[in-house]
């Protein structure tokens, strides 16, 4: 029942935005009684933070598995950054975006979102560095891994108001080629 | 009076977010009568779209001037991307972000925001390519200019919930060095 509530919350966030999300709408969508919902998540903030955390971790784990299963070789970097780009253009990113933007002007929400964001950010960095086979002891490599994540975040934001998957693909292919050159430079 | 209303709208968007912005709050903040405000901007959507457009264009023009005035030479690329990064971490970006995210789930607002976003995006691209002295007839260079803008957008989004200006600077310096290498590669 908890998982059903969390999935329904993300669906409602994606469809209606943070302001349009209410605990009533979520219980209806999940087919869960108001009483049961309030028992698990007393407030809207509890519900949306738990939902974004749950889905981010589940989809992040799926992404990490998919990336780990990619074959080694010349096209690996392209495949990794393309998968990352698709992940940040998915509905889970839209739900997280709703939460981040609402937290910007809501101190109570920010207190819950900031540590979640830090944890998720560290995990995404660790996963990306491993997937790219990036040796972060080399000068500048750590910053390139960070830049890769900030780039897909920016592309994800752009994708929320225009469908630009062809543009995204061209940019990410080019960036993958640059990453390959940079990560092997002067070794 | 129009400019005062638009500046006040951006201030209220930054402080309270899209959901917390009302035409009443804006008229109070601007010291403009409700009647005069309604005469200029009949609806909240008219007001917020005009405000983000006005401020984006004004600050964009200021940025273009500042960038054009930078000296040529070895550190120019770093200076350009640092200025871009600061621009996308400013309150005007936060106001635009509020508008974009609200437009994602509001068709009427999206119809006004999508063409504005396209126009601003094209202008930002043109300005950035010129500032970097990027020759976009070379394969891959156009995509790197686009990636630079998506990167600063992603960094701007991150900066709305955590103050990470030192991290941003390190990433942008590294990015600038990569741009310099890539833009002169195999010429």
From TrEMBL, chains A, B:
PROSITE patterns reported for this sequence: HTH_TETR_2
Top-level division of the source organism's lineage:
Bacteria
Pfam families, per database record? TetR_N
Cross-referenced InterPro entries: Homeodomain-like_sf, HTH-type_TetR-like_transc_reg, HTH_TetR
Residue ranges of every copy of the HTH tetR-type domain listed in the record: 1-59
Q: Which UniProt keywords apply?
A: DNA-binding
Q: Which residues bind DNA?
A: 22-41
Q: What is this protein called?
A: TetR family transcriptional regulator
């Amino acid at each position: 029942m908890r998982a059903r509530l969390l999935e329904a919350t993300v669906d409602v966030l994606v469809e209606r935005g943070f302001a349009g999300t209410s605990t009533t709408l979520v219980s209806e969508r999940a087919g869960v009684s108001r009483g049961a919902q309030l028992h698990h998540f007393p407030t809207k903030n509890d519900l949306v933070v738990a939902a974004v955390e749950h889905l981010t971790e589940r989809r992040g784990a799926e992404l990490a598995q998919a990336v780990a299963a990619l074959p080694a070789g010349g096209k690996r970097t392209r495949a990794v950054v393309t998968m990352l780009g698709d992940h940040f253009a998915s509905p889970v990113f839209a739900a997280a975006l709703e939460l981040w933007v609402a937290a910007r002007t809501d101190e109570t929400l920010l207190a819950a979102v900031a540590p979640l964001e830090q944890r998720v950010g560290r995990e995404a960095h660790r996963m990306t560095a491993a997937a790219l086979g990036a040796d972060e002891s080399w000068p500048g490599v750590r910053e390139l891994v960070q830049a890769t994540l900030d780039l897909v975040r920016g592309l994800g934001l752009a994708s929320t108001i225009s469908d630009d998957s062809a543009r995204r693909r061209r940019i990410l292919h080019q960036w993958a080629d640059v990453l390959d050159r940079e990560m092997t430079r002067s070794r």
